[in-house]
């Protein structure tokens, strides 16, 4: 491994765009994915040359209209990109998108809760501390390896220092118990962290207090008073200390302002006769027999409730809230089902264990979590359909239920992270399927509810290493969790001989170092040495069957994910998988991904491939730009070419033609031979970082403004056209609009610039470049893009087919079971299955490209309409649909066209996405259909022209985007009342004076607008849903 240069460390802001990109990509990959090439010069028409007269005025007017029309869309794109790194957002302390642990556990009652927790946490006396420190040896955090060869556990030590409220920081483990919604300070007024240290308090280390006549007194002395000290795992000096509680006589004599509930006397010896001993033995036998019967009937309930530290903390936190007080509130999409004749309420997932009917369809509610009056039913959930602009807090909820210890909570779908709460009723169970707007909210809600109904709290990470048949069990010490609370707004970048070494989030870095250290110890094994060489930059991900979910660089999210996903997912440690930038051609050679190209071209054919339109020669200047396997184009005044220091983005066109060569390569992240970014350690870092994020925003905005696209994989040939075949009018317009010099019409090097693109359906796109040299560059580079992406798409499909066949072979299942794996219980285990990391890559999190996903999908906007196929592009903030063909308005027949024209742009920042079985409500039922060749199933095997075949049932292939409808109208009086009540914001003065007559608002509790998409396979559907959900999460990081 390359070693860092001595004293060569660069500190950059964590909120910078460069820090975000370097977290998930190495400098070489970052530089390659940021490049683009501008072919040809910029037309004088775009530069607003005064010589063109009327054309200049029309162009300027068109540009101004574009800015107004796309102002909202541009803002959405910029918010999506800048939210990824927190660029110029709120100054959140801590790491990652949510500002570290502190923002996960916000609450208005933090100070009161700290007092309660501090009261519980008077763990040890000075004398007891000396005993425990002298005799206690911690091996609780040791890692345990299991594999095909002998391994040794990696040990990690945990501090057992005495709690000092002045110097110690609050424990993140106990911070997880706080309700997480309202702002809560992590420091006291003096700047010191408040709370208590539980470094030496482990859930597994607490010895259960036995039920006896003195157990209540002992429990009271532990929980409610500071008169006794607790020693965990300390060697017992006598039989009386087996309970793990030691009473200090000196403490009991101290005075206390609080009224004691139990007085503890100093033990005194008592001489017993023979009759007393016989009577005591008989009584002891009778009591033990009765106690065994009681313990058997309790089914370990008493044990789980008796001395659980987490339960006691929750109980005391409970006292700081008033009955009915709101603990958390979020807007969610809710589906309610009812299951009859269910004796025992179990978890309710996609593979529904019992028959159920829909009680209430998908509707948007404000879901409120309140404190209930009974400790046995500690939480109450209420669903409100309050209007978005009302302040009426006395409205009755549409639905409400209490969360008792019999409620079962889990993820209904592991793909879209919808939450399922199964509430037992008299003759069945009510199932509430709640879909929060983003995955972060899903994790927080489910984790908080699960902890309250006493699910296990585990700090153990079970890490599997694919390729080595090796697993590592690590237990994170409290000291590492405490470090995750400490805010650090600086990313440390160490320069290596080649590339950089990045310091990741504290807990992730600790686990990564622990795994790599253990592998380094086993480097003598050839399998391990080979794995370390092939995986230079490993990262964590969760695997469920053949799907991967990569971990974001945030310790709090990672910790909660491990708590919630450990049962159904497998945590793996594998190399960061980006979409491969090379492919193997048919001849056996490897081809590297070509650099994206863009530039201005004159389009000489219309939508149908004709050179004449309205009896005139067709001639339009358009801006073409490629992204992955797509060639977009739009009107010339919508395009913005790349330029040095983003001069054209700032409308700085002075001398720009002299600065741009005929073929200009733009790279905001230039690197040297050692793969070091040239400006990373310069004083003008912020300027370069700003230019880099503006460049990605520019490229993403171009997709939103696209007029149409060409699928590069459908190109048959790109060839030049002799200039003798060009029309004089076309040559004249070229010289006039590009160079403002009509006399150049006789220059052969200028007018000999025609070429055409032939598509698979026989249609032709005829284009004209500004010169012969640029024409040849376009032909060469488009041909390279076509060859690369045709081979790449074929290899990606072969990878999916091989992965599926491997899973069918190893798990001994057929194609139907693999296609509908989410409905299977017995083969859903993640351990034996294989996943294709090239398809489920980390590119969407890392934003390696402005095209996050693209492909062919079927779509319908109404339940009873038919599915229509569209080419769909997912970019930052939007889902853009393009029509595949046009039909004749008179006959309805298909018309030949080389383009996919823009059809619909869907903003995804305010939508919900759900998939799988929950989309059944949006589809027509085909249960009446009978497939003679496939009885008992509702789908026939499908085979496609590229060789893919599968047998998914219809809901398994579908996902839905749900939008709230604007159905409410608010009047002037209500608007004035709303604005008059908001006195805190002085900026609303103008709004208070003129609130407007009426305006539309978003109503809750009503059915919304849903758009259903259908992929051709389960695998493609999971990729689409996962990447859309990741993009939606970006808008939630600054809420």
From TrEMBL:
Annotated PH domain residues: 850-1033
Database matches in SMART domains: PH, Spo7_2_N
Source organism, top-level taxon: Eukaryota
Give the UniProt record's GO annotations in the biological process aspect.
Answer: protein localization to prospore membrane
UniProt-listed InterPro entries: Mug56/Spo71, Mug56/Spo71_PH, PH-like_dom_sf, PH_domain, PH_SPO71, Spo7_2_N
Gene3D superfamilies xrefs? Pleckstrin-homology domain (PH domain)/Phosphotyrosine-binding domain (PTB)
Q: Which residues form the signal peptide?
A: none
Which is one Gene Ontology cellular component term of this protein? prospore membrane
Note the PANTHER family from the entry. PROSPORE MEMBRANE ADAPTER PROTEIN SPO71, SPORULATION-SPECIFIC PROTEIN 71
Identify this protein by name: DEHA2G12804p
Organism of this sequence: Debaryomyces hansenii (strain ATCC 36239 / CBS 767 / BCRC 21394 / JCM 1990 / NBRC 0083 / IGC 2968)
């Amino acid at each position: 491994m390359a070693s860092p240069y001595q004293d060569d460390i660069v500190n950059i802001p964590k909120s910078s765009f460069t820090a975000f990109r370097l977290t998930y990509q190495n400098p070489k990959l970052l530089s390659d994915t940021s490049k683009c090439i501008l072919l040809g010069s910029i037309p004088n028409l775009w530069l607003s040359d005064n010589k063109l007269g009327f054309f200049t005025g029309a162009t300027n007017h068109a540009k101004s209209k574009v800015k107004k029309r796309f102002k909202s869309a541009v803002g959405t794109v910029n918010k999506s990109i800048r939210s990824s790194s927190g660029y110029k957002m709120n100054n959140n302390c801590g790491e990652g998108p949510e500002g570290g642990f502190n923002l996960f556990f916000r609450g208005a009652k933090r100070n009161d809760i700290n007092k309660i927790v501090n009261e519980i946490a008077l763990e040890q006396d000075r004398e007891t501390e000396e005993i425990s420190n002298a005799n206690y040896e911690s091996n609780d955090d040791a890692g345990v390896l299991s594999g095909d060869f002998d391994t040794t556990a990696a040990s990690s030590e945990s501090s057992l220092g005495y709690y000092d409220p002045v110097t110690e920081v609050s424990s993140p483990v106990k911070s997880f118990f706080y309700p997480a919604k309202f702002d809560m300070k992590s420091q006291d007024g003096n700047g010191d962290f408040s709370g208590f240290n539980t470094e030496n308090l482990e859930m597994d280390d607490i010895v259960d207090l036995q039920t006896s006549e003195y157990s209540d007194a002992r429990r009271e002395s532990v929980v409610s008073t500071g008169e006794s000290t607790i020693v965990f795992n300390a060697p017992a000096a006598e039989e009386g200390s087996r309970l793990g509680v030691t009473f200090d006589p000196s403490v009991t004599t101290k005075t206390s302002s609080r009224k004691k509930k139990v007085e503890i006397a100093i033990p005194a010896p008592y001489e017993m006769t023979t009759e007393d001993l016989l009577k005591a033995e008989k009584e002891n036998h009778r009591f033990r027999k009765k106690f065994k019967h009681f313990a058997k009937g309790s089914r370990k309930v008493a044990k789980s409730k008796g001395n659980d530290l987490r339960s006691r903390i929750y109980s005391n936190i409970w006292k700081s809230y008033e009955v009915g007080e709101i603990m958390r509130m979020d807007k969610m999409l809710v589906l309610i089902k009812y299951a009859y004749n269910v004796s025992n309420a179990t978890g309710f997932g996609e593979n529904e264990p019992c028959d159920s009917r829909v009680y209430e369809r998908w509707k948007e509610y404000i879901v409120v979590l309140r404190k209930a009056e009974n400790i046995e039913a500690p939480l109450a959930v209420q669903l409100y359909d309050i209007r978005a602009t009302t302040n009426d807090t006395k409205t009755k909820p549409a639905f409400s239920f209490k969360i008792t210890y019999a409620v079962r909570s889990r993820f209904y779908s592991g793909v879209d992270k919808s939450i399922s709460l199964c509430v037992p009723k008299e003759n069945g169970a009510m199932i509430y399927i709640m879909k929060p707007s983003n995955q972060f909210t899903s994790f927080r809600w489910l984790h908080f509810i699960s902890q309250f109904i006493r699910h296990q709290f585990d700090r153990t990470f079970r890490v599997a290493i694919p390729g080595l048949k090796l697993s590592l069990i690590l237990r994170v010490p409290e000291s590492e969790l405490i470090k995750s609370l400490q805010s650090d707004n600086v990313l440390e970048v160490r320069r290596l001989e080649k590339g950089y070494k990045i310091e990741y989030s504290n807990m992730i870095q600790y686990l990564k170092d622990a795994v790599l250290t253990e592998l380094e110890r086993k480097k003598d094994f050839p399998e391990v040495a080979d794995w370390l060489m092939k995986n230079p930059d490993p990262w964590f991900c969760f695997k469920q069957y053949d799907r991967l979910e990569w971990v974001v660089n945030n310790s709090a999210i990672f910790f909660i994910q491990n708590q919630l996903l450990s049962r159904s997912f497998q945590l793996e440690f594998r190399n960061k998988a980006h979409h491969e930038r090379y492919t193997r051609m048919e001849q056996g050679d490897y081809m590297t991904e070509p650099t994206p190209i863009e530039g201005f071209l004159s389009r000489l054919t219309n939508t149908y491939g004709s050179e004449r339109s309205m009896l005139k020669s067709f001639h339009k200047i358009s801006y073409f730009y490629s992204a992955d396997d797509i060639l977009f184009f739009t009107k010339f005044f919508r395009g913005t070419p790349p330029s040095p220091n983003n001069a054209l983005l700032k409308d700085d066109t002075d001398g720009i033609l002299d600065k741009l060569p005929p073929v200009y390569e733009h790279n905001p992240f230039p690197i040297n031979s050692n793969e070091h970014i040239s400006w990373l350690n310069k004083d003008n870092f912020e300027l370069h970082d700003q230019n880099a994020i503006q460049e990605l925003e520019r490229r993403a905005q171009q997709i939103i403004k696209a007029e149409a696209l060409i699928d590069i994989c459908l190109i048959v040939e790109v060839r030049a056209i002799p200039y003798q075949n060009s029309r004089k009018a076309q040559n004249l317009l070229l010289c006039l609009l590009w160079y403002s010099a009509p006399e150049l019409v006789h220059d052969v090097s200028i007018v000999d610039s025609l070429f055409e693109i032939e598509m698979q359906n026989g249609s032709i796109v005829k284009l004209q470049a500004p010169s012969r040299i640029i024409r040849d560059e376009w032909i060469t580079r488009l041909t390279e893009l076509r060859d690369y992406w045709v081979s790449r798409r074929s290899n990606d499909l072969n990878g999916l087919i091989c992965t599926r066949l491997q899973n069918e072979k190893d798990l001994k299942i057929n194609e139907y079971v693999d296609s509908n794996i989410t409905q299977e219980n017995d083969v859903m285990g993640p351990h034996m299955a294989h996943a294709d990391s090239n398809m489920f890559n980390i590119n969407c999190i890392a934003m390696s490209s402005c095209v996050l996903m693209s492909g062919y999908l079927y779509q319908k906007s109404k339940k009873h309409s038919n599915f229509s196929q569209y080419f769909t592009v997912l970019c930052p903030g939007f889902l853009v649909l393009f029509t595949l063909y046009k039909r004749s308005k008179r006959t309805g027949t298909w018309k030949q066209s080389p383009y996919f024209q823009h059809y619909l742009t869907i903003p995804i920042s305010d939508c919900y996405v759900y998939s799988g079985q929950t989309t059944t409500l949006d589809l027509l039922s085909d249960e009446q259909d009978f497939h003679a060749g496939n009885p008992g199933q509702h789908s026939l095997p499908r085979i496609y022209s590229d060789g893919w075949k599968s047998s998914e049932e219809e809901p398994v292939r579908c996902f839905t985007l749900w939008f709230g409808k604007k159905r409410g109208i608010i009047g002037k009086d209500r608007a004035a009342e709303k604005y008059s009540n908001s006195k805190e914001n002085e900026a609303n003065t103008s709004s208070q004076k003129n609130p407007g007559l009426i305006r539309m608002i978003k109503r809750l509790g009503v059915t919304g607008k849903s758009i259903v998409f259908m992929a051709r396979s389960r695998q493609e559907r999971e990729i689409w849903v996962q990447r859309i959900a990741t993009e939606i999460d970006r808008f939630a990081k600054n809420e």
